[in-house]
């Protein structure tokens, strides 16, 4: 019988293991038992050795160390004999963050949700009344249909709703900072940092927050509601609303920090930007969210930046 596990899945699993060991062994609390277990793992397969050595080799790159300096203790500020000593703990932290994003988030996020999507996944769901929901990458929501209303709770992420018309049973989406009420329409609710964003593709919705008077949005209207937003309505170009539904992320004179934040929603791990000046570089264009490595390479070719790929889950832009 042939092995049914694809080669790329095997390589991914080995890379996960190598990253775990590299981060773990750089901590002060690694026990002798763990070190023995690592030695056994390392000796067991040439693929294990290659994956582990690749990570170690990445970390010894002087340009990479310089790019990471702004995120922790500056290597140039340390005595020469101590510089190498401080490199490893920094990677342990970075690798642990990446591992948390890769391993822990999917398991923890879906425990209380009726529907969820993994990082990089776009998922379509049809509800009992014929309404349709498309979950963007890394999204979780729950559905509670009652006699008086059809209630959806967006825990996090972003979702597109195409609602079947039923005036006797309004469709309501609760998110962290607002409540969106509709009868029949097409719209998107996004859980942002400190605010929720609602955008309408067709029909109309009411968007409220607490006791404030609800704002009525129509096609191509968008509003951000939350502690860091004033709730002002704005018009968006039709092509810009829900571009992710067609597999793209569209930017018009956005900062590199905004672009990276959006692309990060579609990949596991972390993308770090070295300094404030680099974060403010301006970007316009359309990028394929199904291939974020390709998107990063396009940024590298058009901006005065360098990419440092420490592991598949940690990229530094400098």
UniProtKB/TrEMBL annotation:
<dbReference type="InterPro" id="IPR032508">
    <property type="entry name" value="FecR_C"/>
</dbReference>
<feature type="domain" description="Protein FecR C-terminal">
    <location>
        <begin position="250"/>
        <end position="306"/>
    </location>
</feature>
<dbReference type="InterPro" id="IPR012373">
    <property type="entry name" value="Ferrdict_sens_TM"/>
</dbReference>
<feature type="transmembrane region" description="Helical">
    <location>
        <begin position="90"/>
        <end position="108"/>
    </location>
</feature>
<dbReference type="InterPro" id="IPR032623">
    <property type="entry name" value="FecR_N"/>
</dbReference>
<dbReference type="InterPro" id="IPR006860">
    <property type="entry name" value="FecR"/>
</dbReference>
<feature type="domain" description="FecR N-terminal">
    <location>
        <begin position="16"/>
        <end position="57"/>
    </location>
</feature>
<dbReference type="GO" id="GO:0016989">
    <property type="term" value="F:sigma factor antagonist activity"/>
</dbReference>
<dbReference type="Pfam" id="PF16220">
    <property type="entry name" value="DUF4880"/>
</dbReference>
<dbReference type="Pfam" id="PF16344">
    <property type="entry name" value="FecR_C"/>
</dbReference>
<protein>
    <recommendedName>
        <fullName>Iron dicitrate transport regulator FecR</fullName>
    </recommendedName>
</protein>
<keyword id="KW-1133">Transmembrane helix</keyword>
<keyword id="KW-0812">Transmembrane</keyword>
<keyword id="KW-0472">Membrane</keyword>
<feature type="domain" description="FecR protein">
    <location>
        <begin position="118"/>
        <end position="206"/>
    </location>
</feature>
<dbReference type="Pfam" id="PF04773">
    <property type="entry name" value="FecR"/>
</dbReference>
């Amino acid at each position: 019988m042939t092995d049914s596990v694809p080669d790329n899945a095997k390589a991914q699993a080995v890379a996960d293991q190598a990253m775990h060991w590299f981060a773990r062994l750089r901590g002060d609390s690694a026990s002798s038992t763990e070190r023995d277990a690592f030695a056994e793992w390392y000796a067991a397969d040439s693929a294990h050795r290659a994956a582990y050595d690749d990570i170690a080799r990445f970390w010894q790159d002087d340009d990479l160390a310089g790019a990471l300096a702004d995120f922790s203790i500056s290597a140039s500020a340390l005595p020469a004999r101590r510089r190498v000593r401080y490199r490893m703990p920094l990677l342990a932290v970075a690798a642990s963050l990446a591992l948390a994003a890769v391993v822990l988030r999917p398991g923890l996020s879906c425990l209380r949700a009726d529907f969820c999507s993994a990082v990089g996944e776009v998922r379509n769901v049809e509800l009992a009344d014929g309404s349709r929901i498309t979950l963007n990458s890394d999204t979780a929501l729950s559905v509670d249909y009652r006699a008086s209303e059809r209630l959806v709770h967006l825990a996090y992420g972003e979702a597109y709703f195409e609602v079947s018309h039923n005036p006797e049973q309004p469709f309501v989406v609760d998110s962290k900072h607002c409540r969106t009420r509709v009868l029949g329409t097409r719209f998107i609710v996004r859980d942002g940092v400190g605010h929720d964003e609602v955008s309408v593709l067709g029909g109309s919705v009411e968007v409220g927050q607490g006791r404030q008077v609800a704002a009525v949005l129509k096609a191509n209207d968008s509003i951000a509601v939350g502690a860091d937003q004033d709730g002002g309505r704005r018009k968006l170009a039709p092509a810009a609303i829900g571009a992710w539904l067609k597999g793209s992320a569209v930017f018009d004179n956005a900062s590199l920090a905004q672009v990276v934040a959006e692309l990060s929603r579609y990949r596991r791990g972390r993308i770090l930007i070295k300094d404030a000046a680099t974060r403010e570089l301006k970007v316009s264009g359309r990028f394929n969210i199904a291939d974020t490595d390709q998107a990063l390479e396009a940024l590298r070719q058009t901006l005065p930046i360098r990419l440092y790929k420490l592991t598949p889950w940690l990229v530094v832009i400098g």
